[in-house]
Amino acid sequence: VYLVETSGTSDLWNTPLPPRAAFVFGAETRGLPPSLLQTGHATLRVPLYDERVRSLNVAMTAGIVLYEALR
Asked: pTM for the whole thing?
């Protein structure tokens, strides 16, 4: 199980993903609840090209993560 957060500790591009992975995405405005972040699951983030970009919307992020997982 991978938790996908703007403040994730591992970059998606540098994380080997197993063939059977599950991803949990948080709400765009609040992210994931603290109780879920404390479970010890790996937290991923999609690296952004420009530091002026604060975040991607959750649908765009899910598309990028799922594409990368299937690639």
From this structure: 0.83
